[in-house]
Amino acid sequence: MSNYKAPLRDIQFNIFELFNYDSHYQSLPGCEDVSTDITNAILNEFDKFCSNILAPLNAVGDEEGCVWKAGEVTTPSGFKEAYAQYVEGGWPALANDPAYGGQGLPESLSLILAEMRGTANWAWGMYPGLSHGAVNTIKIHGTDIQKNHYLTKLVEGTWTGTMCLTEAHCGTDLGLLRSKAELNADGSYSVTGTKIFISSGEHDLTENIVHIVLARLPDAPPGVKGISLFIIPKFNIGDDGSMGERNGVRCGSIEHKMGIHGNATCVMNFDNARAFLLGEPHQGLQAMFTFMNTARIGTALQGLGHMELGYQKSLAYAKDRLQMRSVTGPKNPDGPADPIIVHPDVRRMLLTQKALSEGGRMMIYYTGKLVDIIDHSPDEQARKAAEDMLSFMTPIAKAFLTETGFESANLALQCFGGHGYIKEWGVEQNVRDARIAMIYEGTTGIQALDFIGRKVLGSGGELLKNFTREIHQFCKANSDNDALQEFISPLQSLNKKWGDLTLHIGTKAMENPDEAGAASVDYLMFSGYASLAYFWARAVATAQVALASGTSEPEFYEAKLATARFYFQRILPRTLVCEEGILSGADNLMSLAEGAF
User: Does the pTM exceed 0.85?
Assistant: First the structure.
């Protein structure tokens, strides 16, 4: 059942009305020509590719999976042909630098296409998705020769990239990694070691694969301060940029996974592989964060994609499936029963998915504007402010949207009842595919520690204040809007509580460092719900303007008001549970002796 269709009307609401991408693009050098018409044309054309080509391959990829044989990986039927069409359409080059063959369009537009691509077929979308991080990392940290050798091919999509961090004995704790690099006489390096869980590490879609790999030099200090970053191509590159002989890197096996079967998750063996230092020696982890932060926004998109796909499938099913009668009287009197969408609990599940997916889209598109400013603004202060805000929002987006994405995928399955548990509808695949998003690119717990430790307490609360100040200004600007008060009043209270909880955690952590870790996940989820409350309040204000102007689409904007009301009354109270968990402290977690577990 491959009935995905890009939610173009909601996308347009976000970019043209809520976040004013038109004026945003006009303010950025190099983006002035990106008009409404151009944006809509791109979205409509890419929707055709996603709904007609990628979506039908989603079930194929899950059923067939990837096949490993003698170090080579064959992707599922149709994947290679779809990738060739993707490259032929120029899609990989969309938001990349024209100096390397890119089209120079804004990154925010690329994020929208990534949402569409990932929702249609997440496993397929991972193959080109990781290339974007490789491009960013080489562009920022690479030498001119490295840029010339790799960027053009990565930008045009004839090569793809990977991120090689994890080893069997070290996941998050990269300071324990053992892969080693030794200097060769010609200035290159030889890297030996094994990496696991490498998405898209080997496949048959492109002629070459560029691995971005962490390893240690012989004189490296211990821990994370002794990690360097290297470029290791599958096929070596000559001085003129041409491909040469096969490098010393092989796929030892592929993982047999719960989901995303259509994407090859590889064990990669590096055996004296010819490598090139990327950035400064022993500064590899800092350079790799360029890649990881790109991937974390991409993973947030995965959470959104699973919400949207599950919602579309369960909504269509709820309108069609006839079961029982409404307790307030028949709604389908000519049929044997009413469609299940008339039942309150089914509506609860559908509205939860709708509120979280549309709110999640707002969050992602908000971050997209920040990336554009960082990439294009000539104003140094504006770039710094955008970098700070993006640093703050990234762990929220990654962790919160993947957690709620999995919740939504499960609710979609529940709407189907027993039919959801069988394969033909595609909703059980969506649940399985969604589960990994809370783990890779840093688990929810790791994101929460980064958020409370580095981003909030580590900045003295300044990064939080930047966002809560924005919320305060919005509430103040709308203090006289009577029609908005049912949203403004709770948002103001929540904004104040956010600051109070932060102060509480910071004070307790000075006495006992475990307090920050104990509160971290509840605090991050509180922050996610609070952020979505702000975006939903903004959406209501925007919808009210449209309704007051006599729009020809009153039903669309009334739905925004109704969904926001549901979010504030039914979902936002979850912050009370988060608050209670935070205030309960660390003792209830840490007092039990290990032997008593």
Answer: yes
